């Protein structure tokens, strides 16, 4: 007879192949339950209320053969498992028989427990590989950042020796050739873990043959890691710290700069540390390549700085000569260029009866403009020997610049003022000026009046048929003429960011400074422009002040 519960579902042996327990459907047939447990992909170990092993499924029997039914789990031969069972822990993780196992406990009631144990060897290996790869990536990123921060050759070499320690090795030695041809011996920089700072020294050429792989690395060829040579030659002992001992493994990698080897990186590990594996070799070679590229960049930068300094010395404003009846002062600022070279310039040359002055502004900024500046100044120094009249000299300069190789392709030009200073019969100065598209110079009279000297003209070096203009002005004793480049009036700043300084402010500054000697006037104008800019970027600035000497 079958009874029917309140919900109408039939109940009884004929219709009840399973029983309900804690919301789980468990077979009542022991054989079916065993088949289900053995079909799982994780190990299952259950214990009774006394802590004895009640059931071990097929996966558990394979992973944990030491755990058998009827034995106390807390005394089994799997130490981590037994410790977790004794201490009532909810989980454990341990290495067992070359596999990594992770177990989790589940309470079954009445003091009984089920342990679910998984083989996480591959999962752990993938996670470890990911952590290792992230660590290597972080190391290369940090090393690249550190190497790129310095453009000084010696600092780059020291960084290349210190960065691999201790991540890649216990000792790093960078062997490199100095940039100077006069020094034909290799140099080395050494750093070991615990050293306060890198050590340096000279290496005889015999060192390259004493350490296997070093000669090949200095030629740009990669070598495989190997043991430290034995017996130890004297040359190698010199590059080891006194208390380092004999290295157990050494790896030599070439440091390649663009187009050539820059040096070699020697990494050594003490005994007890694992040898260099394949991934270590790959990482060391990648680091050495980055260090070589940084070293090559530092050497190239050093060469450029040297060339720029040579150029700078030829382009910096000259020391002004003494001119009878006149007082002169010049001022110069380059457009944010640390090498202090640019496209604005001034020059003063002594000539018969007085002086010849030039003030110009080459189109562009930086080294490119500085090269043309040098060409203009050198041309003026040569041409003034055959022509000293400002207008005729400017016409000769225009032809000389247009005749220069590739002048048409460069499309560069210069705005220019050329003038002569001659003492007047009754004191003062006569100034004859030729203009080549440059801002008009300003005259500051004795009463503070400021007026331009209109010269106009077309830029020099732009057109073969360019026309230039000339003017003449007389300076009474104490009066002054200021020639300047547009970096003064076009300086942008002020309270309204981007507003130009302008000619009106320049005239007002000159009027208020009437009577000042040229040096003080130029210093004041440069100070006013700097205040106006307030640290913002600027164009090149050049100015030349000429004052007629006051009468005795």
From TrEMBL:
Q: Which GO terms describe its molecular function?
A: phosphatase activity
Q: Which Pfam families match?
A: GAF, SpoIIE
Keywords on record: Hydrolase
Q: Which SUPFAM superfamilies match?
A: GAF domain-like, PP2C-like
Q: Note the InterPro entries from the entry.
A: Bact_Sigma-Reg (IPR052016), GAF (IPR003018), GAF-like_dom_sf (IPR029016), PPM-type-like_dom_sf (IPR036457), PPM-type_phosphatase-like_dom (IPR001932)
Q: Where is the GAF domain?
A: 152-305
Disordered: region residues = 1-26
- Which residue range or ranges hold the PPM-type phosphatase domain? 327-548
UniProt KW Hydrolase keyword:
yes
Q: Where is the signal peptide?
A: none
User: Record's PANTHER family?
Assistant: STAGE II SPORULATION PROTEIN E, STAGE II SPORULATION PROTEIN E-RELATED
Q: In its UniProt entry, what is this protein called?
A: Serine phosphatase RsbU, regulator of sigma subunit
Which source organism does the UniProt entry give?
Micromonospora citrea
